[in-house]
């Protein structure tokens, strides 16, 4: 897809992020993806199981001005549409589920092993640092994978 401003990138039309409970990693990745590529890539997220959205994840994303507080976690079984070009799994369990799902689909699957910050221990600041680390790792990985899409010049 060619974008005004001279940037040519081959972007997928739809991306699904998945993790174990759809409570931390995949909602963070989805929030980042929608923030940077929302006008050009449809993005969703699911978990192997639907957990409860983690308040530390919400806080970590708020620090970047990205609001995921209204997101409601869901599982693979809750997907209404499976027309994704790319599924990015963030946990081993989600990777297995994504591979099973795509056995009958023409869809790429990428595995991005991502630490589960919910197992972090220590003070609130130490725990938040773990969530920030995951957020920042996802940010870097997304930008490296999908590039920088320049806004059209008017």
Write the layout of secondary structure elements.
Blueprint: E1 2-3, E2 7-8, E3 14-19, H1 25-37, E4 42-47, H2 55-62, E5 86-89, H3 92-101, E6 108-111, H4 124-146
Helix pairs in contact: 1-4, 2-4
Name the features:
Rossmann fold, disordered N terminus, 35% helix, arsenical resistance, Arsenate reductase ArsC, alpha/beta, two-stranded antiparallel ribbon, 4-stranded parallel β-sheet, 154 residues, single chain
- Characterize the main sheet: 4 strands, parallel
Task: Kindly provide the radius of gyration, computed on alpha-carbon positions and rounded to a whole number of angstroms.
Answer: 15 Å
Oligomer: single chain
Biggest β-sheet: strands ordered side by side in the sheet: 4-3-5-6
Number of helices: 4
Which overall shape is indicated by the principal axes computed on the Cα atoms?
A: globular
Order of helices and strands: EEEHEHEHEH
Estimate the helix proportion, in percent. 25-40%
CATH class type of the domain at 19-85: Alpha Beta
User: What is the rounded distance between the termini?
Assistant: 19 Å
Q: Kindly state the mean pLDDT as a whole number?
A: 90
How much of the residues is beta strand, in percent? 15-25%
Low-confidence stretches: 1-8
**Class per helix and strand makeup:** alpha/beta
Q: Architecture of the domain at 19-85, CATH level 2?
A: 3-Layer(aba) Sandwich
GO biological process, one term: response to arsenic-containing substance
Protein name: Arsenate reductase ArsC
Keywords: Arsenical resistance
Domain Phosphotyrosine protein phosphatase I: 13-148
């Amino acid at each position: 897809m060619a974008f005004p401003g001279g940037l040519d990138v081959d972007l997928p039309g739809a991306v699904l992020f998945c993790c174990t409970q759809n409570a931390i990693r995949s909602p963070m990745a989805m929030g980042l993806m929608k923030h940077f590529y929302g006008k050009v890539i449809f993005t969703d997220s699911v978990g192997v199981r639907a957990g409860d959205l983690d308040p530390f994840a919400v806080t970590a994303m708020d620090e970047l001005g990205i609001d995921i507080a209204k997101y409601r976690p869901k599982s693979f079984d809750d997907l209404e549409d499976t027309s994704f070009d790319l599924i990015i799994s963030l946990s081993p369990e989600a990777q297995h589920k994504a591979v099973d799902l795509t056995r009958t689909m023409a869809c790429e699957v990428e595995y991005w092993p991502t630490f589960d910050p919910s197992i972090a221990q220590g003070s609130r600041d130490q725990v938040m640092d773990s969530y920030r680390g995951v957020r920042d790792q996802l940010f870097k990985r997304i930008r490296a994978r999908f590039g920088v899409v320049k806004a059209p010049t008017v």
